[in-house]
Write a structure and sequence with these properties.
Elements lengths: L2 H5 L25 H34 L3 H29 L1 H19 L5 H15 L2 H12 L2 H33 L3 H21 L12 H7 L15 H4 L3 H30 L5 H32 L3 H24 L4 H16 L2 H12 L3 H32 L4 H5 L1 H17 L25
Helix pairs in contact: 2-3, 2-7, 2-8, 2-11, 3-4, 3-5, 3-6, 3-16, 4-5, 4-6, 4-8, 6-16, 7-12, 7-15, 11-12, 11-14, 11-15, 11-16, 11-18, 12-13, 12-14, 13-14, 13-18, 15-16
Length: about 475
């Protein structure tokens, strides 16, 4: 069936693929260089979240040392998020133009330098500046990774690759709270974890730059069969070849809806990334190490949910008669179940049981992530770096809102005489309402058209082939 024939059938699933033999010669087994690329991306994602989440565990001793209020803690964490959002689109665009190899290397070197620089801060304003520069350096990691996956993987493998990449980010986030907590206790202060974690990134950047190539055809590890497999579907064009149609961008409702969805998700996830250890210590009365373990458990739930979502969600989309509806329902059910689980978690007096239900909520919320990633990549069409960066960058609004909200809310409740759980727990109801908003938004997304109005069947980015 030709692409023209397929596009005439609205419910035809472009992600149902033929066997590998239809792509590769029978006599030659494809090489596996693309899985080495995935391993490198996953390790980058792991280090990325180690450096990012370390602050959530360190902010309590930092606040104690410098006498920060909850609002000042919020502003320190928001400095990173603001810079990350401001530089997400231009850095994604640089990847479109100059290639992900150069840009990802620069990103990781930059964020490693300022992770170490965090340990050298001496007060509120120095922390504010360093964390802002840290965020500016880390921006663009996700859109450039999206470009690498779109270039190095055939359509039917991209959901799995995207799910693995995102899962490793949460694995890094999951191990960081208890690692940072122990390092703070054993090494005698909050500064040392930033030094150690910053070194990891510098090592990764050197290895990646030496091994990776933007074009699979230029890599000596890629055989002819693997190259044919990779090129069984379209790859994103270079930016100078295809200008971004900015005028059409404002007519593409679904891209903005995806931005709203990721904003709602970020409001929820930054509760765990920025404030959850502080919540466990201040509201639930746990020690730094105890809060580290439970925070790690919650983020581990997110990693599990994300990995399962990448595999199961991809299969659901491939096998569905109406793949567009399947994607919308995955996203809607993911957010709705996360809201219900979070509401239940607040009812438990036991910190362990409360954290266990929060882990379930985190798993449910991240189940949709690969579906969101694939849908955004598809709609971006030939402009993956810049437009994925735009949609992902919208999440900064939710992330900053979450970081600011919890600090202001906690201080406001304290001013009215509330302490412990009474000071913090009501904020969880607000988060649940935001998740319900995200669930409803998913129902209005149309994943079948690119930014330029072309059918997504011609530009599938994940889950299968249209052949």
């Amino acid at each position: 069936m030709t692409p023209t024939d397929e596009s005439s059938i609205p419910t035809q699933n472009p992600y149902q693929s033929d066997s590998k033999e239809s792509v590769c010669p029978d006599h030659e087994r494809p090489s596996r260089a693309r899985w080495v690329v995935l391993a490198m991306l996953c390790s980058m994602s792991f280090v990325l979240y180690i450096d990012r989440v370390c602050m959530s565990q360190a902010i309590v001793p930092i606040g104690n040392e410098f006498g920060f209020s909850n609002l000042e803690k919020s502003l320190v964490m928001m400095a990173f998020t603001l810079a990350y959002g401001l530089f997400e689109v231009p850095t994604g665009r640089w990847g479109d133009k100059y290639g992900a190899r150069r840009i990802l290397t620069r990103i990781v070197v930059w964020w490693s330098v300022f992770t170490v620089g965090t340990a050298m801060c001496f007060g509120f304003y120095s922390l504010l500046l360093v964390r802002f520069l840290f965020g500016a350096g880390e921006a663009g990691a996700y859109p450039n990774t999206a470009r690498v996956i779109a270039t190095w993987f055939p359509q039917r493998e991209r959901d799995t690759a995207q799910g693995a990449f995102m899962a490793f980010s949460l694995v890094g986030g999951a191990v960081t709270p208890f690692l940072a907590a122990y390092m703070i206790e054993m090494l005698g202060g909050w500064r040392w974890p930033f030094v150690v974690f910053g070194v990891f990134g510098a090592i990764w950047a050197a290895l990646f730059h030496a091994w990776f190539r933007d074009d699979p055809a230029e890599h000596s590890w890629v055989g002819p069969a693997e190259l044919e497999l990779i090129r069984s579907g379209p790859a994103p064009s270079r930016a100078h070849e295809v200008p971004i149609p900015w005028g059409l961008l404002f007519q593409q409702r679904s891209l903005w809806l995806l931005g709203l969805i990721i904003t709602c998700g970020a409001f929820n996830s930054y509760l765990y990334i920025s404030w959850y250890p502080n919540y466990l210590q201040k509201a639930r009365g746990l020690t730094n190490v105890e809060s580290g373990w439970l925070s790690s458990m919650v983020l581990a739930g997110g990693a599990i949910g994300l990995q399962i979502g990448g595999i199961v969600g991809g299969r659901i989309v491939r096998r569905a008669r109406n793949w567009s509806l399947a994607r919308r329902m995955i996203g809607c059910c993911s957010y709705a179940s996360a809201a219900v689980s979070l509401l239940i978690s607040v009812q438990f007096a036991s910190p362990k049981w409360s954290a266990a239900l929060a882990a379930v909520s985190c798993a449910c919320m991240f189940f949709h992530q690969s579906t969101w990633w694939s849908t955004t990549t598809d709609i971006s069409g030939r402009h993956v770096g810049a437009l994925f960066g735009l949609a992902n960058g919208m999440g900064v609004i939710g992330a900053m809102g979450s970081q600011l909200f919890f600090g202001l809310f906690a201080d406001w409740r304290a001013e009215h005489g509330f302490t412990g759980r009474a000071q913090w727990d009501p904020a969880m109801y607000v988060v649940a309402c935001v998740l319900v908003c995200g669930a409803a938004t998913w129902l209005f997304v149309d994943p079948t058209r690119t930014i330029e109005g072309e059918a997504v069947e011609h530009f599938p980015s994940a889950g299968g082939s249209d052949r």
